[in-house]
Amino acid sequence: MSRTPLERIRNIGITAHIDAGKTTTTERILYYTGVSYKIGEVHEGTTTTDYMEQERERGITITSAAVTCEWKNHRINIIDTPGHIDFNIEVNRSLRVLDGAVFIIEGVAGVQPQSETNWRLADRYNVPRIIFINKLDRVGADFFRACNSLREKLDIVPLPLQLPIGIEDSFRGVVDLVEMKGIVWEGGELGAKYHDIEIPEELKEQAKEYRQNLLDTALSVDDAAMEEYFEKGDVSVATLKRCIKAGTLSGAFRPVLCGSAFKNKGVQPLLDAVVDYLPSPVDVPGIKVAAAEGEDEASERRRIKADPNAPFVGLAFKIINDKYGTLTFVRVYAGTLHSGDTVLNTTKGHKERIGRMFQMHADKRAEIKEVSAGDIAAFVGLKDTATGDTLASPEDPVVLERMAFPVPVIDISVEPKTKEAIEKMSIGLQKLAAEDPSLRLRTDQETGQIILSGMGELHLEIIIDRLKREYGVEANIGAPQVAYRETITRTHTETYTHKKQTGGAGQFAEVKITFEPLERNGGVVFENLVVGGAVPKEYIPAVEKGIRSQAETGVLAGFPTVDFKASLIDGKYHDVDSSALAFEIAAKACFREGMKKAGPIILEPIMDVEITVPQDHVGDVVGDLNRRRGMIQSQESAGSTVIVRAHVPLKEMFGYISDLRSMTKGRASFTMQFHHYDPVPRNIADEILAKSA
Amino acid sequence: MQPSRLHWKRGRTAEQAGGTCTVEWIGCDEGGKPIARVVRIMGPLYADWRRYLAVALDREARIIELRPPAPEGAEWLAYVGNRVVGRAAWPLQAVRRVEAALAMM
Ligand SMILES: Nc1nc2c(ncn2[C@@H]2O[C@H](COP(=O)(O)OP(=O)(O)OP(=O)(O)O)[C@@H](O)[C@H]2O)c(=O)[nH]1
Ligand SMILES: [Mg+2]
Known about the structure:
The complex is a heterodimer of chains A (693) and B (105). Chain A is α+β, with helices and mostly antiparallel strands and 693 residues long. Chain A is 27% helix and 31% strand. In chain A, the strands form 8 sheets. An 8-stranded antiparallel β-sheet of chain A has the order 18-17-23-14-15-22-19-20, with helices on one face. A 7-stranded mixed β-sheet of chain A has the order 2-3-1-4-5-11-6, with helices on both faces. In chain A, strands 24, 25, 26, 27 and 28 form a 5-stranded antiparallel β-sheet that branches. In chain A, helix 10 packs across helix 11. The radius of gyration of chain A is 28 Å and the shape is globular. Chain B is built from 1 helix and 11 strands. A 5-stranded antiparallel β-sheet of chain B has the order 1-4-5-10-11, with helices on one face. Chain B has a two-stranded antiparallel sheet with strand order 2-3. Chain B has a two-stranded antiparallel ribbon with strand order 6-7. The radius of gyration of chain B is 14 Å and the shape is globular. The two termini of chain B are 19 Å apart. Chains A and B meet through helix 6 and helix 7 of A and strand 1 and helix 1 of B. The site of guanosine-5'-triphosphate has 23 residues of chain A, from helix 1.
């Protein structure tokens, strides 16, 4: 597979807010690079990367899809990701393994909430980016306003490399500021043909100004380029491109291109920019190994360089179960691997034998015999490897940094329509949950019901639909519930003695545990402070296990308890009667007793809501948000519409879409995503407690 | 733009996350005499138990404090002699400020 030298490989993602045109752009890329012989359309359900039935029916991307193409002697591996926040895990895991990204921004709306979220994700993984302002053919499109929204909302230096020629209906091409020429797409051929023109007279002045801005900004990253400029009053195209690439990699600025994917304009220069400015696997600093226990997350650690001759290192980032079995997608960072080889899963500490290996093209696969550094491939035959696990050669068994997964905020209960299907359903759900780390499965300890937690109503709807289509299980589901959490507000120390003397061997364990509140997102932290063997070492893991499993069912209303630290400070044991089980039971009971005295409260998810509404309905929408306990964050006008941003408890947002439609006669739209957890107000807490009692 | 009327050469450098970078460019006249500088303002910076919002280095590379601090997006100071003739976001812009100021003199 890796006949292409590393310098000529690009592993990139396409990411954006929902509906910005990622799939449409990807489809053009496949056509212009000769991979497909015709252009599919999202609204016709005929694109390559939206291959799932549900994607084609709904015209949205749900799962990320990988495709490969060749452009100007480079191999570009592209992952098209979904924009809907319910499927954010797909963006997350893709950005984690890619070397660069194309960020698509809508020409009318500019930066939207999910563009912002995905931008921050890319920041977290340090992914170099170029920006494509799409849909310039649409009424209300404005390249410069979109650029400003980049600067303001993302706090970056957007660096236009192009200017649009014409706009809306008359949009026909771009000014290339690097080479100072016009490029226009005229006539048919679905945009495959384009040609250079002189910069149109009316744009010359503006082009000059933006070219100067390009030089000022880009050359600042390269002293030799500055000197070239001082000498000649300009720099060569090669020098300018070198500077743009350097700044793109360091993030000093972010190149901006533009076009209209749907109208087949601007895509080929975007591909040029991918080749010219986004990094190859050897241009990036290399993936970091995980922090050792107790080591600071931010510490400087070893990085794995892309080298096909080094010991093998790869990261499993996606799992798909289909009729052929389990496919594990792996990004190879170093080394070379052949089918039949054995590697270590260093995250879990066991061996895995690689069966067959495939290069994926959306849902199609081509078998390959070898993968090496820089490749993305799918493996068959791995027994127990989950998303985020590292696979490595036993010669150098490194563990890579894990991925962070998004927080599921909605619960539903599921049960099969027929009793017989229970087994099939739970196998199906387990497989779906193994594919999707943003889906959680638990059994309510009290009611015995299976509870699915997911990112949103759409996410869970798709899961139930897949359960039916792929596993043949029809399930009844309960109404979506808010995924509440419990936590504590004060520190409390509790001692609990578990003692049982019935006939034969007894049970004895005593634990003294301090429970203290942590900041939001603190999770569950366990610490052992016992010195001198008051609790023997071998029982400590049992105490931790007891705490963690009991935390799944909180003391107030049975919701998972989070954001607290449990420190084992003392205890007692008995030579004969103590056991791991006894300590686990003691820890569980200690949790139940202790948490009640530590000021337990219920937390609810607060959503970041953005509503785009025509001017004349703003009053109604804002009034309604107030009734929903919303806190208005901002109101901005963009032409004749207003964008209202608010923080609103998720509980109040169920069914919002239909209320919003009737309030605005269908002229408004909204998006929301999880923002943070907050304590629920008293009256709501009482309601929840009454329900759970 | 015309080729520069001054001969610009690299001045002081600083160690930054990405490596060494030039934080000063010196503009010399025909005879090689330095007559202008553009300087990157740095900060905030902690030294001698104090926090400086904005600093530059003087000719002996000593820290000199600047007041007021640089407005955001204007981290480069353009000097002709010892007189500040402009501020800019990028060194090339600052160089243009210097050249524009010289053309007026
Ligand atoms: N007018 C216009 N419409 C476009 C353009 N690009 C995409 N669209 C349309 O916008 C809609 C959404 O496009 P997609 O390509 O599915 O967007 P996406 O970003 O992949 O969406 P998700 O994957 O669901 O987040 C489709 O109806 C496209 O035809 C464009 O340049 N101009
Ligand atoms: Mg899509």
